[in-house]
Amino acid sequence: MFCSAIRNILKNSQNAAKNTAITAQIRHLRGQQIPQNEIEVIQPTDISNKQDDKESQATHESSKEVALDFGNREAHVPSFNLAAYVNKSSTLQQLIHLGVNLHSIEKRKGLGQFVLRLDFEKNVKPYISFLVDQGISPDAFGRMFTKNPLLFKEDLDDLQTRVDYLKSKRFSDEARQRILTHNPYWLMFSTRRVDRRLGYFQKEFHLSGHDIRLLATREPNVITYNMEHLRKSVFTLREEMGFSPKELSTLVVRKPRLMMIPPDDLIERFSYTHQDMGLPHAQIVQWPELLSSREFRLRERHEFLKLLGRAQYDPQKDLYISPKTIVEGNNFYFVRNVAKSDLETFELFLRTR
């Protein structure tokens, strides 16, 4: 009933909600600002007390001004703060209406100053029109601009060229929209660079055109991820876990995000599922979610099923439990639908194990 009441209030007062959103972000931004007396200014040990007093006074006076050039500021000094400008800047207000999280932006070096200099009509609106033309929902604008405000620095013709490249590679409208909304950084990559990335995955795993499109659409972030990390993860999957080339190709297409997980975590999860749970490579390939779940969660649930005599993962035998269900849902879902027990028993097991 409480949630319904809130929804009714929001429906009847949309304008008030917009103003509240602005006010909430201002309060949040101001709440993050560090008081001056909490900033520790480190002074050289060989400077006289007289010099200390002068520098302290200068620091106090400069704190009254807005430091636009903060690229060389010390790490312990708070980042550029946008709170003081929201009420006076129509651009910042418009960005808040779109759902942009200004606090998230200002925490990243240089972006607060960059966003403050934007003119909404000249620097933002044309990019909104471009995204609308690509079929992007307005609901996604806030998340996209929060994640990558530097999109506004890119030439619109270059952005169109990069979208046209995806069309030429037969990515569907829905695939392109998913790629752009889930990974706004994709548009920062030149067509040549994206082509090399797609070529790497296609050659490394012997993928067809359909499979490479599926991989890129399921996890757009993997295409622009750090290549050194990707190579290490691929090495771990192939050499340390022993998946065959065919198994590895199937695995990365079904769950491309595995390549973004730290190799040590992958090994830990594989070791538990393969050795402790007794699952062969084929079953892990069939249910790659096992490698994307944290090891302690696998351990807790497997040991509970083992205690109940239900840890049976062979589909050829009775009382078979699909390994996929072990990592699905919250504890209540697992206990009721998989373990066929109750939450009180499971919680007691966790306290006494």
Taking all Cα atoms into account, the compactness measure Rg is 26 Å
Alpha plus pi helix count: 20
Measured between the Cα atoms of the first and last residue, the distance is 39 Å
Q: Quick one: biggest sheet?
A: none
Report helical residue fraction: 55-70%
| Shape designation | globular
**Uncertain spans:** 1-14, 33-79
Elements, N to C (H/E): HHHHHHHHHHHHHHHHHHHH
Structural class: mainly alpha
Number of strands: 0
Mean pLDDT: 83
Strand proportion, as a percent range, falls in under 5%
Topology:
Layout: H1 2-12, H2 14-32, H3 49-62, H4 90-97, H5 102-106, H6 111-116, H7 120-133, H8 141-147, H9 156-168, H10 173-182, H11 191-205, H12 209-218, H13 227-240, H14 245-254, H15 263-276, H16 281-286, H17 295-308, H18 323-326, H19 331-338, H20 343-352
Helix pairs in contact: 10-12
Structure description:
The chain is mainly α and 353 residues long. The chain is 60% helix and 0% strand. It is built from 20 helices and no strands. The chain has helices at 2-12, 14-32, 49-62, 90-97, 102-106, 111-116, 120-133, 141-147, 156-168, 173-182, 191-205, 209-218, 227-240, 245-254, 263-276, 281-286, 295-308, 323-326, 331-338, 343-352. The protein is globular.
